Fold this protein.
Amino acid sequence: MSGGITSGHRDPRQPVTTVNDRNDEMTTNTTDHESILNRSTEMQLMHEAMARAHCQARFEEVRASNRAYRLVAAARAQRRAEQAAMRARRLMAAAVLR
């Protein structure tokens, strides 16, 4: 089958060309081209959504990590305050006994 004509099968990525009856110009079927553009746009939007979801997940991880860090820091501060209060009580008891 020479000449590039096949048995009804064509590459869907290539636009269909037809002859315009009015002025015999070659025109392109825009529906195939538009569907390719729509698929490209959909892929781009899908990638953007995936990137957004990834950034959101990373943000949540950082937020949880910061929350855990603050919780540990608060526990440490509370422990230091309790130790200081205990030292103050011992000093008071020692002062009273003298």
